[in-house]
């Protein structure tokens, strides 16, 4: 393995963490620095195309929610030049807000991502979430997508 590949893995892993933190901090502008404008995604509700659609789906769940924490683990990254693939476990906890403050919702899953180095920056170009289990009430998430 070359030093360049190790540095790419580090940059991609940091980008994964930045996405998770952006969701938890509701810092939607932060995603602009990490997610490609033409990203495609499937988070379990069908295909999405474009950063605006991805952020809108995230917001439809998280803006009505209380505190959240998206924890990533068992990260595996394979780099091939300016392209890469990553897989990691995700465990996310969502706490209710307001009338739903007594509710929680958690999922156990996996992100399968594709990355591309664009102008020297690794950007997410494809995300697929596989949810293996969920516990609690989806009512924590408010109305969800409309």
Number of beta-strand segments: 6
Biggest beta sheet summary: 6 strands, mixed
Main β-sheet, spatial strand arrangement: 2-1-6-5-4-3
CATH domain fold name: Nuclear Transport Factor 2, Chain: A
Instruction: Tell me what portion of residues adopts beta-strand conformation.
Output: over 45%
Topology order in helix (H) and strand (E) letters: HEEHEEEE
The number of distinct structural domains comes to 1
Number of helices: 2
Pick out the low-confidence regions: none
Please characterize this protein's 3D structure:
This protein has 146 residues and is of the alpha+beta class. It has one domain (3-141): Nuclear Transport Factor 2, Chain: A (Roll). 24% of the residues lie in helices and 47% in strands. The protein has two helices and six strands; from the N terminus they run αββαββββ. Strands 2-1-6-5-4-3 form a six-stranded mixed β-sheet, covered by helices on one side. β1 (35-42) and β2 form a beta hairpin. It is elongated. The mean pLDDT is 94.
Keywords:
146 residues; alpha+beta; Nuclear Transport Factor 2, Chain: A; 6-stranded mixed β-sheet; 2 helices; 6 strands
Short description:
The chain has helices spanning 3-25, 51-62; strands spanning 35-42, 47-49, 68-80, 83-95, 104-118, 121-136. By secondary structure, the chain is an alpha+beta fold.
């Amino acid at each position: 393995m070359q030093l360049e590949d190790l540095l790419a893995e580090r940059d991609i892993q940091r980008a994964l963490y930045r996405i998770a933190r952006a969701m938890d901090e509701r810092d939607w502008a932060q995603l602009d620095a990490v997610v490609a404008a033409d990203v495609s995604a499937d988070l379990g509700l069908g295909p999405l195309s474009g950063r605006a659609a991805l952020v809108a789906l995230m917001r439809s769940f998280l803006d009505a929610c209380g505190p959240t924490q998206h924890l990533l683990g068992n990260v595996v990254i394979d780099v091939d030049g300016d392209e890469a693939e990553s897989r990691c476990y995700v465990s996310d906890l969502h706490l209710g807000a307001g009338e739903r403050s007594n509710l929680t919702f958690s999922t156990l899953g996996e992100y399968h991502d594709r990355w591309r180095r664009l102008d020297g920056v690794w950007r997410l170009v494809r995300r697929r979430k596989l949810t293996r289990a969920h516990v609690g009430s989806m009512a924590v998430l408010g109305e969800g997508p409309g």
